[in-house]
Amino acid sequence: MTGTTAPRKGGRWIERWDPEDEVFWRETGERVARRNLLYSVLSEHIGFSVWSLWSVMVLFMGPAYGIDPAGKFFLIATATAVGALVRIPYTFAVARFGGRNWTVVSALLLLAPTVAALVVMEPGTSYGTFLAVAALTGVGGGNFASSMTNINAFFPLRKKGWALGLNAGGGNIGVPVVQLAALLVIGTAGAGHPRLLLAVYVPLIVAAAALALVRMDNLAPVRSDVGAVRDAARDPHTWIMAFLYIGTFGSFIGYGFAFGLVLQTQFGRTPLQAASLTFIGPLLGSLVRPVGGALADRLGGARITLAAFVAMAVATSVVILASVRESLPVFLVGFVALFALSGLGNGSTYKMIPGIFQAKALAQGLGAEEAAARGRRLSGAAMGLIGAVGALGGLGINLVFREAFSRSGSGTAAFVTFLGFYAVCCAVTWAVYLRRPATASVTGPQASAKPQLTSV
């Protein structure tokens, strides 16, 4: 993705981009990259708010809507599933249309689910209609994949943990922001006025698209590369990291969507009481994501990821104890800790991705510049696949909650399932990235003397 390419006409296209060149980065690259990061964060932030709309719409859906808790969990799960699946085409849209151009289009697409919800959000609307509108909000989940792929191309490897963490954290914070906005509406106008919340987002979406249009850039060296997608899909580390991302981001988005409904269903909180608590966890998880990326830059992504999973297992044990004893204060402490730790792991896992591919390239005998180029090429393609699979973890969490509550009226069984999964994530992280060197995954006569993945 470096070097000079044939000029592309129209729009704001940058023909040469080489962030690993320190002179280029100091004189030109850093300023441009930071500007694009700012407006990428804004668009992704609103995308996350739209994607998580139904985590708060269900708080407005009282008995007059005629939908039981299992039905509400399925609405949330539908939004999660579609958001995960559209991440794959959104990733490749950056290379096809340009990062700036696709940011504009993807922002405008957010109008469809927002306006649709504005029209149908009232008692008497059929469940099928609600399901279709919830599915539309999935386009907000796609924004994450295209935004991360775009920003990954702008920054050098030594800055990726910080940049990707900030980009993702700024986007993730859209979840608690929409929950706080819902709290404001419920606390002032009451739970019967969900359209007030939806109406606020329409001008914000238009503003995000307009700012991206006039302030962001396309990188001409980022081309559609089917070969990169094929190579990334064939590399086992893509799927190992996707599995780990289920544990971090899948937890964050799954818990973020389900938290308010769990409080209502298991602890009998009113919509206002639930809304006053749900934003805390996602807010902390979003704010700590850049910290996870920065720590990974300094200490190694695998070490931070393993520490996050161990701590998540401990926090889940606290939640299980609180659930059995029906202690809301202890439950809140454990659940909020889960959010913060998942955010830390989100930042560290995404830092690992470009580092893994660059380390493998070095282990295969490529020079530093070639290895950096290959790392950017493959990590950009892998991020779409990893992000999609990771988001499907949120779907899994909501479906497990739905099953647990439909069977027992409690989420205890669901949390026991999650505890077992975090234990497996700990084992995988240690076995693949901390116990074994890269040479275990790299073939060839040059492998034994090359860098190890323990540095990622």
Structure description:
With about 450 residues, the protein is mostly helical. The protein has one domain: Growth Hormone, Chain: A, CATH 1.20.1250. Helix content is about 80%, strand content about 0%. The chain is built from 19 helices and 2 strands. It has helices at about 20-50, 55-60, 70-85, 85-95, 100-110, 110-120, 125-135, 140-155, 155-170, 175-190, 195-215, 225-235, 235-265, 270-280, 280-300, 300-325, 330-365, 370-410, 410-435; strands spanning about 15, 220. A two-stranded parallel sheet has the order 1-2. Helix 17 (about 330-365) packs antiparallel against helix 18 (about 370-410). It is globular. The model is unreliable at about 1-5 and about 435-450 (pLDDT under 50).
Offer a concise description of the structure:
It contains 19 helices and two strands. It is mainly α.
Question: Could you give the topology of this structure?
Answer:
Elements: E1 13-14, H1 22-51, H2 53-60, H3 69-85, H4 87-97, H5 99-109, H6 111-120, H7 127-136, H8 138-154, H9 157-172, H10 174-188, H11 194-215, E2 218-219, H12 226-234, H13 236-267, H14 271-278, H15 280-299, H16 301-325, H17 328-363, H18 368-408, H19 412-435
Helix pairs in contact: 1-5, 1-8, 1-9, 1-10, 1-11, 2-10, 2-13, 3-7, 3-8, 3-13, 3-18, 4-5, 4-8, 4-18, 5-8, 5-11, 6-7, 6-11, 8-9, 8-18, 9-15, 9-17, 10-14, 12-18, 13-14, 13-17, 13-18, 13-19, 15-16, 15-17, 16-17, 16-19, 17-18, 18-19
